[in-house]
Amino acid sequence: MSVHEDADPLMHPEVQQSSVFGYLSGYAVTVLLLLLSMYITIAHMLPPIPLLGVLSGLALVILIAQAFLFFGLDFSQHHIWKSLSIILTVPLFILSIGLTVWMFHSLDGLTMMPDMPGMSMQPTLLQ
Amino acid sequence: MDAQVPRDGKLPPLWHYGHEGHDEISTKTLGFWLYMISDSLIFGGLFAAYGVLDQPMSFAGGPGPAQIMHPVAAFGQTLAVLTSVLAYSLGTLAMKTNNKAGVLLGIVGAMVLAVIFLGLEFNDFAVLYAHGATLQRSGFLAAFFILIATHGLHMMFGLLWMAVMLVQVGRYGLSKEIVMRLLNLRLFWQFQASVWVCVYIYVYLRGTFS
Amino acid sequence: MLVDLQGPWSPLFGRLTLASIPYSNPIIIFAFVFTALAGLAVVVPVLYYRKVGYIFREWLTSVDHKKIGVMYIILGLVMMFRGFVDGMMIRTQQVMADGPHSPGVMEAQHGYLPPSHFDQIYSSHGTLMILFAVTPILTGLGNIIVPLQIGARDMAFPTMNAISLWLTAVGAMLIMASLFIGDFSDAGWVGLTPLTELPYSPSVGVDYWMWAIQISSIGTTLNAINIITTIVGMRAPGMRWDRLPIFTWTTLSTNIIGLTAFPILGVALALLGADRYLGTHFYTAGLGGNLMLYTDLFWIWGHPEVYFLVLPSFGILSEVIATFSEKPLFGYITMVAATFAIAGISWAVWLHHFFTMGAGPWVNTFFSVATMLVGIPTGVKVFNWMFTMYRGRITYTTPMLWSVAALILLLVGGLTGVMLANPAIDYTVHNSVFVIAHFHCMVLLIAFTIFAAVIYWYPKVFGYKLDERNGTWFFATFTAGTAITFTAMFGLGFMGETRRLDYLYDPSWQPLLIVEELGIFVYVLSCYFFCRMFYVSIRDRNLNRCGADPWGTSRTLEWMTHSPVPFYNFAVTPHVNARDELAFRRSVGADETPPDHYEAIHMPKNTMIPVLIGVLAFGFGFGMVWRIWWMAGLSLLGIIALVIFRSFVHDHGYLLSGEDIARMEGKASQMSIMSETQDEMAMAEGVH
After folding, report:
1. Of A53, C316, C592, C633, whose CB is crowded by the most CB atoms within 10 A?
2. Which of residues 178-207 of C touch A (CB under 8 A)?
3. In a mutagenesis test of the B interface, which of A11, A21, A27 is the best target, namely the one with the most B β-carbons within 10 Å?
4. Is the peptide bond before C194 cis (omega within 30 degrees of 0)?
5. Whole-number Å distance between alpha carbons of C63 and C141
């Protein structure tokens, strides 16, 4: 990978890597899978927790497809750092969002009163 | 020390002449990619906040997600942003053949669709405000609005960037600096589509059944 | 206005009125006089010797990573001094205000500081020390050393480097401004909600705190992008990953933390800002807010942040200990692995800052175990340093003294940290000064390594060594002060003293409080030796000029440049053949071999844009704090316009010819980081 300083910028791999096929298929995958997600949700085909699981799975597939088809990420010398950095960032999302949600769920179970009719009505005295 | 001193006693090369092999375009795009990673964590934090405030206590007697989310209508916004990203990406394909007009066309197409996206979003917000579901109404609504608005703000900055690129591509053609900026803008814009996928699924779709 | 502001507001001046200036507070008046005199002591000589143009041309508009690093360090040291004064004031108040019969002077019922003022002092002490003293100094060190260690000419984005510096400086300036115009936050450096919400902190203090941190965090994130890209993409040929100096490895992992954690801080503060400016209910007590959300988001950043501070310190320890034991670092691969293990695990431990907030035993257990796990890679590092010293030929120069003392502090701080990682123990000492003593051991070890690094690398940057005698006195007094103050504080923690108290209700604490105050006096003495060290060194600088390798036993690439480093770093990019390249070349007798010819190199030009962005950023911050909307709005538009404008400028550099370089290399020993670049080139041509 020695692209000389004076080389034609248009010959750079990041310019040349893009393709009609990649972008159109990325677009199609995203639109179709989101359409599928919308349909599954509106048609009430699954109970909430499995539905969340399926939607998360679909989201993951879409994002990976976009990583590959839109961003062109792979493990070649040109893209290795981008790929590595995004792969290592994913656990940070899981940790920060996942542990937060778990923590608040546990906290609410210990500190909040059980759900009774009319409990969601809040007094509006405090600003 | 792991260096190899050859048997004939000659020293290994001490100095490097000529080009150092540092590719400026790759350097700049890597830097921008790292910025996008930090940007993605901003959205991560906002999603965490939304996850915490998306529960009945935070509705404060006001509307919850089921009352304000309309996935089918939001699919219109989804199509707008995705097609905008497609338009811009196809525009950058024109760089391969030094086709200035193609690049400009792609940018213009992306801008038009982005404006449509923002218009649909503002309209959404206006309807909500008309029904009293404002930013200040409850913790849940605050989280919802700020998350969506942050994405919208990114789209607006992207529009500004695209406008500047229209001027620069028109005036200076496809020089190295312009190519770098177009590549970075592509990263930025495609990223907006990725964020919107998460928004659509975890806010609009999940809102209807949690 | 969307929120209920207490006090007047006008479209032109926002909340700013003459009453915002605390001219009736004698302590502030004293601080103002002192600061003004210090400022004059700098400005008057600059004007007298007609150096304004020089400062503007060579320093303020510089994009040279070494000069930017030096400015970072100067900023950090000045802010460290102010933070130290804050610390002195805290200690003095507490020793005076112990017990119901303790005297009160001026406006205070006990001691000399009324509660609101005391609260502002410990808030600024924390904020300044962590974010505006230690962070800039470590950033500055990384800025100077990392490009040299990897054989690069500059950072990947020189202009962005300068912008990062000025954004950090703007944050510090906002906190200085809060001293004289308005007041500062009284809610601690953490800024817990709902205390920082508008109804409970109606003054501008929390806004100052919030915007200072937000603006400087942008600088830190940009700097992280810069350094990571530099390390990944701009290494000299032959500088493989397994040959990277250990300080560069730790800088890499530190900035990965910086890149990923600081955005979360941005979110936490932005949501607080939304509450304070837009009337939203993210963290409020009613209408659906969640107070603990702030605590959660803040500490998701807050814990990786402390590793952001400590990992470069570990890198410094590795460099200094290896050099002064005349041995290669023991266990290079495990050191690197341990560094990344620490960085990775640090992302999963944040709840240990609020074990007591009710998340429950399962959650607490998870975070407790994760916290204790961090001790394992840290222990690996400590053992590696000890094995590096074992059977080495140790010279106790001042950097080595600081490093050994840092190791001892790491032991105490680390062990007390593992104690705190246990929720059962934490429930009894949470919010007591035991916690304060623990983390002061950790941040002081960071300070020790900072002093080690500054003394170690000073000759490389400035071309002469710092005075060892005064340096040793500085070390002795500073370490003694640390030992005295914080040993007493551990004791007081066990005796039940809570933190952040302006009035202490238990007179039986008095003896240990007096011991702490004695420790502070010893610290003050160390300030004297610190100043004396610099004074003597600068006075005698021409007697102590040194060559490329002032310590004689250095091992890594940066010691191959001249001292001081010329503005172009290496005349010819070195080809790297080994880990510890200089030590390798010394072993084959090639450490003095010059290149046989010189080629032209491309250097970046100085630019005014970063300073202008800094000025506008200050305008934005000040405008937002005082709700002067036109000032904030115009400043923000100005920054955007500047960035767009700069993108239309084409030529960002100039070419330095091979002949110029050859001549400057010949005169390298007469150069200085303080001289003008053109003067250096003219001197090389023999014109001067």
Report:
1. C316
2. 199
3. A27
4. yes
5. 15
What would the two tokens of residue C40 be?
Answer: 């004059």
| Cβ contacts of C3-11, under 8 Å, gap ≥ 24 | C3/C198, C3/C276, C3/C277, C3/C278, C3/C279, C4/A127, C4/C198, C4/C199, C5/C198, C5/C202, C5/C627, C6/C202, C6/C203, C7/C202, C7/C203, C9/C627, C11/C629, C11/C630
The b-or-e profile of B91-102 (16+ CB within 10 A means b, else e) is: bbbbbeeeeeeb
Tokens coding B44:
């991560």
What is the reported pLDDT for C281? 93
Residue of B nearest to C229 (CA): B31
Q: Does B27 touch chain A (CB under 8 A)?
A: no
Q: C201, C287, C291: which to substitute to probe chain A, counting the most A Cβ within 10 Å?
A: C287
Amino acid at C186: D
Q: Is C645 exposed, middle or buried (CB count within 10 Å of its CB: 0-12, 13-18, 19+)?
A: exposed
* Chain B, nearest residue to A98 by Cα: B48
**Which residues of chain C have a pLDDT value below 50?**
687-688
Q: Is C9 inside any structural domain?
A: no
What separation in angstroms does the CA of C573 have from each of A108, B27, C48, C673?
A: 60, 18, 41, 20
The confidence band for B40, taking pLDDT boundaries of 50, 70 and 90, is very high
Asked whether the beta carbons of C256 and C142 are under 8 A apart, the reply is no
How far is A108 from A76, CA to CA, in rounded Å?
Answer: 47
Write the DSSP symbol of residue C560. G
CB contact B12 to C (< 8 Å): yes
A49 to chain B: closest CA residue: B210
The two three-digit tokens of residue C550, written as one number: 């002032």
Give chains near C: 3+ CB pairs under 8 A: A, B
Helix axes C433-462, C468-494, angle to 10 degrees: 170
Mean per-residue pLDDT for B126-154?
A: 94
Residue C126 lies in a domain: yes
Residue pair C71/C161 in contact (Cβ under 8 Å)? The answer is no
| Peptide bond between residue A117 and the one before it cis (omega within 30 degrees of 0) | no
Q: How far apart are CA B61 and CA C287, in angstroms?
A: 8
Q: Are A42 and B57 in contact (CB under 8 A)?
A: no
CB of A43 less than 8 A from some CB of B: no
Tell me the count of A-B CB pairs closer than 8 A: 158
- Rounded to an integer, what distance in angstroms lies between the CA atom of residue C446 and that of residue C317? 10
User: How far apart are alpha carbons B102 and B92 in whole angstroms?
Assistant: 8
CB proximity A10 to B under 8 Å: yes
Q: Number of structural domains, chain C?
A: 1
3-state helix, strand, coil in chain C (%, to 5): 70, 5, 30
Of C502, C491, C372, the C-alpha closest to C104 is C502
CA–CA gap between residue B109 and residue B101 (Å, rounded)? 12
Q: Is residue C616 part of a domain?
A: yes
Q: Which one, of C593, C456, C408, C389, lies nearest residue C73 by Cα?
A: C456
CATH code for the domain in which residue C362 is found? 1.20.210.10
Tens digits of residue pLDDT in B8-17: 667 788 888 8
Q: Which domains does chain B have, with CATH numbers?
A: 71-208 (1.20.120.80)
Domain ranges for chain A: 18-71
Tell me which amino acid residue B10 is: K
Asked if C596 and C145 touch (Cβ cutoff 8 Å), the reply is: no
pTM of the predicted model as reported, rounded to 2 decimal places: 0.94
Tens-digit pLDDT profile for residues B152-201: 999 999 999 999 999 999 998 888 889 999 999 999 999 999 999 999 99
By C-alpha distance, which of C270, C216, C207 is closest to C626? Answer: C207
Q: Is residue C537 part of a domain?
A: yes
Domain range holding C79? Answer: 18-687
